[in-house]
Amino acid sequence: MTIQEQISFLTRGCVDVVNVEGLQKKLESGKKLKVKLGCDPTSADLHLGHSVALSLLRRFQDLGHTAVLVIGDFTAAVGDPSGRDSTRPVLGREKILENAKTYTDQAFKVLDPAKTEIRFNSEWLDPFVTGKDLLQTLQKVTVAQVLERDDFKKRMAAGSPISMLEVLYSLFQGQDSVALKADVELGGTDQIFNLLVGRQLQKQNGQEPQVAITVPLLVGTDGVKKMSKSYGNYVGLNDAPNDMFGKLMSVSDELMLSYYELLTSEDLPTVKALHPMEAKKQLAGLLTERFHGKEAAIAARANFEKVFSKKENPDDMPLIKPAEGAMLSAILVEAGAAQSKNKARGLIEQGAVRLNGEKILQDGPLSYQDGDVLQAGKRAFFKLSH
Predict the structure, then answer these.
(1) How far apart are CA 260 and CA 111, in angstroms?
(2) pLDDT in tens, 281-291
(3) Rounded to two decimals, what is the model's pTM?
């Protein structure tokens, strides 16, 4: 690729690039760039929203650059305030390290392990806060700069508390860039302030400032809110192949194109020329293959077409053996089709629960025969047995 083609490839679908001239200069130097992406292990699972930045990081790898995945074992105990309207709960060290292990396992479903450095930011932040460096750094960032943050403004207007640790968070993330001498840092659009602080601290430490690149926050499968486990509109990187394929087939045609742009390197004009249903199946196949392999993706497509196009039951259904006289809502919770009995009753009332294809509209003890099929929603099928 020419330099301009590389820039187009690396900034596809991105929102902020600070600055393009700096990126061009770094690419023209011919050196292998150190491209940083930080993630705080605050939960055990990643979803496609996380993979947007991971996919961009992979693009840099594909051009021969080094990806540095910074596991925020120090900053996870602080709490990133970016985009939040309340203080994030602080996690214990043991839980942070447990989550960190799952993060690296899942990240390597996108990244090339051979071109990835894994660094834990406690390595440099522990001595940073116990020595004099923190006090010297605090002199370089003003209160006015911190209070200009949109998330802080909103929380102050709402009377929500802001902890001093959260105020310091951007300094800690910026110090990551100084410690690593990062050439480029990636993040979501809600991270732009933190990325710019990194540029400022690098300048003040005599380093060439990093290029800051942000990606959009991926909209969830509902087409409304950002993808999040708490909203129930997510596609998890560890979702089973059939679940992943089915969730992706549920998105709107408009959202499908956004997913193509942010999560794949496919040619968009070619995609738009396809029939929307085929384009969506190809998207679901591409992403399922990325995280589960080609055979699993082919099987997931076949399963989807059998269940949704031909209206047949899937071949592979979990076997459940409900207790005698068990309420339907309790069975759905036990099977993992609902998170609580209240949510299970909601599914029943919506007509989303079927026994052998017939809707069940009231909760109560479930009467069934061995081999009957219980369906919850569009994708969850269970074979019943006494």
Answers:
(1) 18
(2) 999 999 999 99
(3) 0.70
